[in-house]
Amino acid sequence: MSALPPAVEANADGLVGPTHSYAGLSPGNIASQINAGEASNPRAAVLQGLDKMKRLADLGLPQFVLPPHERPFTPFLRSLGFAGTDAEVVECAWREAPAMAAAACSASAMWAANAATVTPSADAPDRRAHFTPANLFTNLHRSLEGEQTTRALRRLFPDPRRFAVHDPLPAVAHLGDEGAANHVRLCADHGEPGVNLMVYGREAWEPWDTKFPARQTREASEAIVRRHGAHRPVLARQARSAIEAGAFHNDVVCVGAKTALLFHEGAFEDKAATLDAIRRAADGLFTPEFVEVSEKDLPFADAVKSYLFNSMLITVPGEDRLTLLAPTETEENPRAHAAAQAVAASNGTIGRVEYVDVRQSMRNGGGPACLRLRVVLTEQELTAANAFQRMNDALHARLGDWARRWYREELRPADLADPQLLEETRGALDQLTAILNLGSDFYPFQRAGA
Ligand code: SUG
């Protein structure tokens, strides 16, 4: 078992794009619905994200930046029959099909937990790290992400001898896939083989007529396990009641790392069977530590509002116990704050709670854990990743200057139709490809003129 090389958990965060807005595009995501139509602050949003990345890098954790996608996404609008120059395409789409135009403007690729499902090399039979980019089939605006995310992951993890970046699963309702937001990997240590908990909301052929969509199908999770050869999988069903109460992804009510699984008692359809299956899968590897927060201590609605469970559970180098990095909204919610303090005081694997301000993202239902894709990497794999995307003081400063130059301070959903925005976003992204060494053919608009 310990013939495997040691590994660390790196994070790749989605850089917030210049069109960050509150367009109310995600039914079942309560924050997205409540804040629909409000003005957003793209510049503050991107700076919050950059500060979060720097904080992780300063703690000694490898941190990467995933570039935003091209928005407004004119290839999508052209596929709907809009024609002319790009500016005309955008203008006509806003006039004739504003819902389509809004989807084409979303900066939702910032939530990198939905970028892909990742299986580290220690858990894959061919000892490569495997990635399946999510097809994000359920919501129109998110379904536009898969292809560019695949390209982005292939640039960040380029060496096919070490990394297998698959194509997304076929984009059909039966195989709806939302990536790592519905996956928890438990293990004795990051480099050791683990147990892979895959949480799904519904089955492919199951009639689904409740008020909010179940985004992940069991069949999608099974296909990913099969493709990656993921070690010791456990398939578990999300509680229907959780989805109906706003847990549109499992990571809204559950987070785990190493041996610890922190979850709300209402997260799983069959809690006892789920925990038992994890215990059995972990047999001979480690003893799982279940940290359950009860409905009595934290009503489900407070869990969803405060995003306690959308925290990151990180291993700070040199520390034995895990740190829970929670959103400021958790600190401000008395019950969630008390629950977080109780977890840290309980003498278990989670030793400390800290808070991070990602308010702009939170108002669209994206907490600290949504913004990052966890990737367990060995030293050699880390070296093989694109170093230009690795966060450090210099990159933080450079991207801060870049964002202050290009990002608007305020954006109302109606401003998304401003023709000037197309120019601004393209200018920003063109410069970004140079900063992150992504090549000058990374975005469709860069390839269009070639
Ligand atoms: O898919 N919000 C995202 C939030 C994703 C959070 N990710 C995780 N839980 N891992 C979503 O619902 C809202 C966009 C808008 O309404 O403008 C949005 O797409």
Walk me through the structure:
It is a single chain. The chain has helices at residues 30-34, 42-58, 74-79, 86-96, 98-105, 140-143, 146-156, 218-228, 240-244, 271-282, 300-306, 328-332, 334-345, 359-362, 379-384, 393-406, 419-435, 444-448, and strands spanning 7-14, 63-66, 116-119, 129-133, 163-165, 183-187, 194-200, 233-237, 254-257, 260-264, 289-293, 312-314, 322-327, 350-356, 372-378. It is α/β, with parallel strands linked by helices and 450 residues long. The strands form five sheets. A three-stranded mixed β-sheet has the order 2-1-15, sandwiched between helices. A three-stranded mixed β-sheet has the order 3-4-5. Strands 6-7-8 form a three-stranded mixed β-sheet, with helices on both faces. Helix 4 (86-96) packs across helix 5 and helix 16 runs antiparallel to helix 17 (419-435). It is globular. The N and C termini lie far apart (50 Å). The model has no long low-confidence stretch (mean pLDDT 97). The structure holds N~2~-(3-carboxypropanoyl)-L-arginine.
